[in-house]
Amino acid sequence: MTEQMKRPVTGIDAVTEGIAAEKSALAWTHTARFLTTASRLNELPQTELPEIAFVGRSNAGKSTAINTLTQQKRLAFASKTPGRTQHINLFEVGPRIEANALLADLPGYGYAAVARGAKLRWQRVMADYLEVRRSLAGVVLMVDSRLGFTDLDRQLLDFIAPRIGNGAVRLLVLLTKSDKLNRSEAHAALAAAQHTLAELTTEQADVNVALFSALKKSGVGDAATLLHGWVCPPAPATLSSGTPEEHVHP
C-alpha cells in the first residue's frame, strides 16, 4: 500500500480555510443568549465553562461591539445614559443543549455623573471579578481609537497584568470607532496601542490588538475568529487569512 502524499498548503488553501474559520466563528458568536445578571460577585453561577469578559470605559462602544460580534441588535443593553448599566450580565455561547463558553458584559467605568458611592462599589466588584473569578479565560478591552488608553484603561491593564503575564487569561484590545480615523491616524493608533501593550507581554502571554468598527463591520470577523479560537482551538495545520489581529510580541 502506497502512502498518500500530502499536498502542500497553497495561498488559495489558506484563504479558503480562513474564510471557513471566520464563518464558523461568526455562527458561534451568533448563538449568544442571555443567561443571568448579577449585582454582586457571589450572585454569579459557578461554572467550569471558559468565560470571556468585555470591559471598557463608558462611551467606548462596548455594548455596540458585543451586539455587532453576536449579530444581534439588543443582546447587550446600550444605555442612553453612560454609566447606568451596573450589573454583570452573562451570556451563554455554543450549542443550546450544552454551551461551551460564557460572555460576561461588565459595567462601563469612568463616567463622571455616576454617584461616587456607586462608582466605588462597582470598581470593587469589577476588581474582585477580574482578580478571583476562576473561570475567567479572556478579557476583551474596548478602547476608543480616537483617545487611546486613558488613565483608567491603564489602571485596569495594571490590575490584570499578573493573570495576563502568566498566561492564565488572554487579552484582546479592540480599538473601537476606527471608522472615525483616516488611514494614517488608524496606523498611529494601532502602533501606540502595541507600544503600550508591549509592557504586558511575556513568553506565556497571549496579547492581541485590532482596529474595530461596528459601523463599517471592520475587524468583526477577525475578532470573532480569535475568541472562537480561545474556546475551540483550531488544528495546528490550520492557517488563517486576511489581516488578523496584531499579536504583541515580548
Write the layout of secondary structure elements.
Elements: H1 11-29, E1 33-38, E2 51-56, H2 62-70, E3 88-93, E4 101-105, H3 116-132, E5 136-144, H4 151-165, E6 170-176, H5 183-197, E7 207-211, H6 220-231, E8 246-247
Parallel strand pairs: 2-4, 2-5, 5-6, 6-7
Antiparallel strand pairs: 1-3, 3-4, 7-8
Helix pairs in contact: 1-6
Would you give an account of this structure?
The protein has 250 residues and is of the alpha/beta class. The protein is 35% helix and 18% strand. Helix 5 links the parallel strand 6 and strand 7. The model is unreliable at 1-7 and 237-243 (pLDDT under 50).
Notable traits:
disordered N terminus; alpha/beta; 35% helix; 8 strands; 8-stranded mixed beta sheet; 250 residues
Query: What's the end-to-end separation, in Å?
Result: 48 Å
How would you sum up the major sheet? Answer: 8 strands, mixed
As a percent range, the share of strand residues is 15-25%
Shape: globular
Strand order of the biggest β-sheet: 1-3-4-2-5-6-7-8
Oligomeric category: single chain
Question: What value does the average pLDDT take?
Answer: 84
- Which class best fits the helix and strand makeup? alpha/beta
- Percent helix range: 25-40%
What is the C-alpha radius of gyration, as a whole number of Å?
18 Å
Low-confidence stretches: 1-7, 237-243
* SS elements, strand count: 8
Element-level helix/strand string: HEEHEEHEHEHEHE
